[in-house]
Design a protein that fits this description.
GO molecular function: ATP binding; metal ion binding; polyphosphate kinase activity
Number of strands: 26
Keywords: ATP-binding, Kinase, Magnesium, Metal-binding, Nucleotide-binding, Phosphoprotein, Transferase
Shape: globular
Radius of gyration: 27 Å
CATH topology of the largest domain: Endonuclease, Chain A
Largest sheet: 9 strands, mixed
Function: Catalyzes the reversible transfer of the terminal phosphate of ATP to form a long-chain polyphosphate (polyP).
Helix content: 25-40%
Strand content: 15-25%
CATH architecture of the largest domain: 2-Layer Sandwich
Enzyme class: transferase
Protein name: Polyphosphate kinase
Structural class: alpha/beta
Number of helices: 21
Number of domains: 4
Oligomer: single chain
CATH class of the largest domain: Alpha Beta
Distance between the termini: 61 Å
CATH superfamily of the largest domain: Endonuclease Chain A
Length: 721
């Protein structure tokens, strides 16, 4: 056993409550010998490289103009979550004194410094792209204006809007008049106000105002000015009204500067056995709001004396992650920028295609009885799944519905269908994950709604997150009890299904449905550990089964047989799986991967990963599905899965991968993967440099997401003929 593995096993006992530490510790990010080639990319740096790919979309002039603005919002939202979760974990490790290179390959402090440096570079690039996009908007007569650029008509409009809508929501706090600095909420933007008396600085006033973007629109359309369409931000509407707010003070100048604090969002669940898990998660959500600071962003134009005052009063003057930024923060709000301008400013709207095997059926259950169905979102509609639930709810022969829920839509039709099933006398069991990060409050709400309706709720498995995507319907058919199962790569969420690329198998195959029934029995009775012949179930044996498939490819390569692995996933971080892929590459196995997000594997290392190619596709939809294909000496094995190859997925979550047995569906998945591999428009090359170079060649232009839609559309046309 290697040294880092020994240390990992020992430290597991110490940090057993803090699983986020263990993910970091398990991955030996870098080699110990300074002259060795670096075989692992640190996961935090790889994630920042992914977010740089998002920023590339905002920079790309071929992307419709207002979609580029949305990508700036996505980039900002991603970065906020990164600091709340990943940097929060790093800070915990630093606070705990974890620093030995033998444990993690590189110390958390060193990673934190590299993160900080990379984030500053990305922030500078963000500002450049934002400036470029706004200038292009101006060429189209769309202006984002501030309080200094208004004409008389706009000023009159804003004066009324400020008094009626904004002023009642503002609570200025005079900072010099109170002993302690007010508590700053996580990722909420504030304006620090400098009410300045030029010749009497001692009598100058400092104030703090929360920007109420949670209850008011961040962007407001103004009356047109000389044929120009104008939008102003809520921050600047407040600046516009500063004279009104502070009219009782004597001052020469007044300025407002944005600040934002990001806090550690990791939940600590206590061990009090007298409390239900529901109560523990609810209490932990309250504690999250008081999490430790992990990033402080401020307007770089803020006067030094005001910044110094703020940092000292917050007791963060020596803080590692002090990030100078622009005038506006929380750029994630650009995802909700007003719809303005022609249709050419947006992606072409393509309606979901009908599924070739479902369009002639009135009954979803009848269609699934006929053959296995594979759905591809967002190219085909998620409504098929909701239709299945609705049909099951009123079918007199359906006796029960069981489902796992991780993230659901705000106004969930899935939940509504389940409640309807309860009203129709069906037994409904819902395994709902209360620890789905940032969806905890929503899931608590839906848990109460379902419980009130009469559903049987199982709130997960102690010590594990339930991340599998399973639905199981039981129906009486004559003398038989028949099961129908849905196994997916993405959440049962009609909102994200319009934006995320995912797959769902609908089947009544007895081998598969029998094992799905076993998984739900495990949720009910955690002491029952089953053997699964067909499904791959984590944390029980998914890792081992994937390992055996890789070992089989290695064996075949050494015997001179065809050997390859083609896979698609969101993240590849698990060091054991990476080492096995390296071993396979050394044996001659040809490996092609599509990894949208974090990839700690380094392709192209001579003698180590020469036979591995990795690309990442970032486009208008979020690539989210997990697909695995193994050559198996010509008898290919196909799987779709809810799990990435990360420690958390393979060892600390309940995940399910299902085989695809239907020959036609295998062919469909093969075509889908082949389209991904030849993308030369939105695919980036993943390498050690993390420089995100686009795949460019002399082949026919291919854009995977557009070509996948065209492939499924052609399927329909072929069926018609």
């Amino acid at each position: 056993m290697k040294l880092y593995e020994v240390l990992y096993n020992r430290i597991t006992v110490v940090f057993s409550k803090h699983n986020s530490y263990l993910t970091f510790l398990k991955l030996k990010n870098m080699s110990f010998m300074p002259n060795e080639v670096n075989e692992y990319v640190n996961r935090e740096i790889s994630w920042l490289s992914f977010n740089a790919r998002v920023l590339q979309e905002a920079k790309d002039p071929s992307v419709p103009l207002l979609e580029r603005l949305k990508f700036l919002g996505i980039f900002s939202s991603n970065l906020d979550e990164f600091f709340s979760v990943r940097v929060g974990t790093l800070q915990r490790m630093i606070d705990a004194g974890v620093k030995s290179k033998a444990m993690v390959g590189v110390s958390p402090k060193k990673v934190m410094k590299e993160v900080h440096s990379t984030v500053l570079d990305l922030r500078d690039e963000f500002d450049k792209v934002f400036t470029r996009v706004t200038k292009e908007l101006e060429t189209q007569n769309i202006y984002i204006v501030d309080e200094t650029q208004l004409d008389d008509v706009q000023k009159a409009f804003l004066k009324v809007y400020f008094q009626e809508k904004v002023r009642p929501r503002l609570i200025p706090v005079m900072l010099k008049d109170i002993p302690d600095f007010p508590y700053l909420k996580n990722q909420v933007i504030y304006l620090v106000i400098d009410v300045r008396k030029k010749w009497d600085p001692q009598n100058s006033k400092f104030a703090l105002i929360e920007v109420p973007a949670d209850v008011l629109p961040r962007f407001v359309n103004l009356p047109d000015s000389q044929g120009r369409k104008c939008v102003i931000m809520l921050d600047d509407i407040i600046r516009f009204g500063l004279d009104d707010i502070f009219s009782t003070f004597d001052y020469d100048s007044i300025g407002a500067y944005t600040i934002k604090l990001t806090r550690d969002a990791e939940l600590d669940i206590d061990d009090d056995v007298t409390k239900s898990f529901f109560e523990k998660v609810s209490e932990s959500l309250e504690e999250r709001k008081k999490g430790q600071p992990v990033r402080f962003v401020y307007d770089r134009e803020i006067p030094y004396y005001l910044l110094d005052f703020t940092l000292k009063r917050l007791d963060i003057e020596n803080f590692e992650n002090l990030v100078p930024g622009g005038k506006y923060h929380n750029a994630k709000d650009f995802m909700g920028f007003p719809k303005i301008g022609p249709e050419s400013f947006y992606y072409e709207k393509k309606h979901p295609l009908p599924h070739k095997d479902l369009r002639n059926y009135k009954s979803m259950l009848a269609a699934i009885r006929e053959k296995d169905i594979l759905l591809h979102y967002p190219y085909q509609s998620f409504d098929y799944f909701i239709d299945l639930l609705r049909e099951a709810a009123i079918d007199p022969n359906v006796t029960s519905i069981k489902v796992t829920l991780y993230r659901v839509a705000r106004n969930s039709n899935v939940i509504n269908a389940l409640i309807n099933a309860i009203k129709n006398g069906k037994t409904v069991t819902v395994v709902i994950e209360l620890q789905a990060r940032f969806d905890e409050e929503s899931n608590i709400y839906w848990t109460q709604k379902l419980e009130d309706a009469g559903a049987r709720i199982i709130d997960g498995v102690p010590g594990l997150k339930v991340h599998s995507k399973l639905c199981h319907i039981t129906r009486k058919e004559g003398e038989d009890i028949v099961h129908y199962s849905c196994i997916g790569t993405g959440n049962f969420n009609e909102s994200t299904a319009k934006l995320y690329c995912d797959h769902m198998l609908m089947t009544r195959n007895k081998d598969i449905t029998h094992e799905v029934e076993k998984v739900f029995d495990f949720f009910d009775h955690n002491y029952k550990v089953y053997d699964y012949e067909h499904l791959f179930v984590a944390p029980l044996q998914m890792r081992n089964k994937f390992t055996r498939l890789i070992e089989n490819e290695i064996k075949n390569a050494k015997e001179g047989k065809p050997a390859y692995i083609h896979a698609k996933m969101n993240s590849l971080v698990d060091s054991e799986m990476i080492d096995q892929l390296y071993e396979a590459s050394e044996a001659g196995v040809k490996i092609k991967l599509v990894v949208r997000g974090i990839c700690s594997l380094v392709p192209g290392i001579k003698g180590r990963s020469d036979n591995i190619e990795v690309i990442s596709i970032v486009d208008k939809y979020l690539e989210h599905s997990r697909i695995f294909i193994f050559c198996n000496d010509g008898d290919e094995k196909y799987f779709i899965s809810s799990a990435d190859w990360m420690v958390r997925n393979l060892d600390r979550r309940v995940e399910v991968a299902t085989p695809i047995y239907d020959v036609a569906l295998k062919k469909e998945l093969r075509e889908y993967m082949d389209i991904q591999f030849v993308d030369n428009t939105k695919a980036r090359i993943i390498n050690e440099a993390q420089d995100n170079k686009y795949v460019r060649n002399n082949c026919k232009i291919c854009r995977a997401q557009e070509d996948t839609y065209a492939f499924l559309e052609k399927q329909l046309q072929n069926e018609d003929t």
